[in-house]
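It is worth pausing here to work through a concrete case rather than discussing structure prediction in the abstract. The textbook approach is simple: state the sequence, then state the predicted structure, then interpret. We follow exactly that order.
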Amino acid sequence: MLNTSNNNTRKMIVIHGGHFSSLAGFYDEISSVLMKNTDWKVGTLDGFDDILYGGFGVFENNEEITIICKDSGKSEADLGLKATQEFYDLKIRQGKPFNIELIQEKRNDLSNGKGQTLFEILVEIIQSHRNITLVLA
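Step two, the predicted structure:
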């Protein structure tokens, strides 16, 4: 979703796709941008969703913010089909506590062109927060 509104009351946060090429790298980037001056680091999709509620890190609960994702095309490629398949394969190999049947179903959907890539999952997580405007640049 591209929002070009110019609302000066919004906090601007920039994520650089050029700073990472994997999900682990994304977590490092998002931790350094959103969680600076804290001891907590993002390490899961649920953890990423949690920090977007605010209240710790660089913005408050329900504060209006804009996240600008620079080099989003690179991120979309880096966190695309191959990276997502590897993500699911790792969870399947790890087994419990993961729901292997559900993960296998998601991986099959992805292989059949119906599932979401990691990039699409991350975008969906951001867009689920109504106080956050996402700009893909």
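Step three, interpretation. The chain has a mean pLDDT of 91. The first helix runs from residue 23 to 34.
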